[in-house]
Amino acid sequence: MKGQSLRQANWHGHLLATNAPHPYRRWLAGGGSLTNKLKAHSRAFRVQLLHQDTAICLADEANIIGYHRPGRVWEREVLLRCDNTPVVFAHTVVPMSADASDWPLFSALGERSLGSTLFGDPRVRRGELEFARLRASHPLARRARAALAANDAAVPEEVLLYARRCLYRRHEGTLLVTEVFLPPVLKLERNNAK
């Protein structure tokens, strides 16, 4: 059971519970569209699709999406890149009970931003943000590091990764978005050229 607990994050409703360093807090706590914020801090923003298919949700996702235990979901993982540098690893799960009327564009997003879709639809209701400091053994920390390594941007295991997640609702469907903020996000500065 201890191994299982090391693969789960302690999610908190308040950012300070994660002990995130101050430079991360402005990214974690920011309201509105993360896509728009990243665009304002780069000359070129891009979504790199890593994976989109069915999968089994993570243990610490099951309850929030209405499952009693991990079950099959639609899963999407992307890297958000600013000026070609990966700055956020994003992981989205949609329960299999959702249908095309709940999330009509989800299956066809490709390398388009999910955030643009969520914030542009008045029928989408956004839940409260939750925050976590991910252990190196957490599946999302491992996946984020693997994605970075594949893009020649490795992050050592001793570097803590901070994440936030939010549950969205549209009609009867739910969609959980988790964003893992990667160390290069701290180097972004507001692009005043725009």
List the helices and strands and how they pair.
Layout: H1 2-6, H2 22-28, H3 34-40, E1 45-56, H4 59-62, E2 72-82, E3 85-95, H5 114-119, E4 125-126, E5 130-134, H6 139-150, E6 161-170, E7 173-181
Antiparallel strand pairs: 1-2, 2-3, 3-7, 4-6, 5-6, 6-7
Whole-number count of domains: 1
Strand-and-helix sequence, N→C? HHHEHEEHEEHEE
Please report the total strand number as a whole number: 7
Task: Tell me the CATH architecture.
Answer: 3-Layer(aba) Sandwich
* Top-tier CATH class: Alpha Beta
β-strand percent reads: 25-35%
Low-confidence segments, given as residue ranges, are: none
| Chain-averaged pLDDT | 87
Description:
There is one protein chain. The chain has 194 residues and is of the alpha+beta class. It has a single domain (2-187), classed as 3-Layer(aba) Sandwich (Chorismate lyase), CATH 3.40.1410.10. Helix content is 21%, strand content 31%. It contains six helices and seven strands; from the N terminus they run αααβαββαββαββ. Strands 1, 2, 3, 4, 5, 6 and 7 form a seven-stranded antiparallel beta sheet that branches.
Based on the model shown, name its key terms.
single chain; 194 residues; alpha+beta; Chorismate lyase; seven-stranded antiparallel sheet; globular
